[in-house]
Amino acid sequence: MRAYFAWPKDARGVDYAPELKPPMLSSIPKLLGSTAVIVMVCCALPGRADATVFRDRAAFNATSQNLHTIDFESVPKFEGALEIDGLLFNSMGGIGIDTDQSGNKLFRAQTVGEITRLFIQLPPGTTAVGCDQFSTPMIISISTGESVTMNPSDTSTFVGFVSDQPIESLLILLDFPEPTPSALVDNLSFGQRRAGNEPPVPQLLVTNNTGRALGLDSVTTQSEPFHILTSHNFSADGHTRITLFLAGVGLEPGDQPFATVLVEDAQQHVIELPCEATARVKNLSWISQVTFRLPDSLAAGDVNVSVKIRGAVSNKAPLKIE
Fold first, then answer.
1. 3-state secondary structure the chain
2. Domain ranges of the chain
3. Which fold has domain 203-321?
4. Does domain 44-193 have CATH number 1.25.40?
5. Most buried in the list 77, 97, 131, 178, measured by CB within 10 Å?
């Protein structure tokens, strides 16, 4: 199975990274072992989201949830583009890891031709992102249009953005002064905005060509179509179990009682099915998975599936039953 992301565009319809279109999420094929070709994409990018800008990490953390942080301390040696936890880091002038005077490891995007340009592709469902940036001056912007210029006179090295719309990428860019400094970044955090006491809304991952649900047989890891009964089964009842993949929520095995799958047939009858298992995807901390059992009552054809986590319901997407 191969997985690719579509690159986001700015308000003019121009790719944020037109020269960079490499494969993303290279660890998913190793984890699932499927021969299916699945393309995962983010939500459509709105014109502008009016994200809130934070210069204090504590305030950013208070308005965010389900945060994942990359501090670069355990990053191994690499060549070319760097992928960590499914995020892609790339720079016009090359990238590397530097160690500061205190022994901390920092991510470096090298300046080239008096231009510094670091592009970071974020996971689907990201609505909060922040980092410590140790080079100044430096301009940091997100794909929804907000931008902050960090100056040497700033009292904070942190900048964060929280939006009610998807943030698909983070861009660090500078073409002044001369010589233009390289970008040094640490503690990149990404997750979702916190809306009062409301739980985060799960985002069901789909394929980009047809918008169909990213679902795999939990035993064979094959994609649709699915049959109600199968001989490849770990359960005595012979029923197929399907695993769906979600962004925007962090699920552990203990979250199983709080997760259900909603299946809607052609007559718009909705069946609410309990989940038999919940978990994080190994090495991709921002992707969660739920596994459910196909019931006898489903008729052949397309059904729409969605996932409800603690009362918050995801987007719908079709699956084929034969």
1. CCCCCCCCECCCCCECCCCCCCCCCCHHHHHHCCCCCCCECCCCCCCCCCCEEECCHHHHHHCEEEEEEECCCCCCCCCCCEEECCEEEEECCCEEEEECCCCCEEEEECCECCEEEEEEECCCCCCEEEEEECCCCEEEEECCCCEEEECCCCCCCEEEEECCCCCCEEEEEECCCCCCCCEEEEEEEEEEECCCCCCCCCEECEECCCCCECEEECCCCCCCCECCECCCCCCCCCECEEEEEEECCCCCHHHHHHEEEEEECCCCCEEEEEEEEEEEECCEEEEEEEEEECCCCCCCEEEEEEEEECCEECCCEEEEEC
2. 44-193, 203-321
3. Immunoglobulin-like (2.60.40)
4. no
5. 131
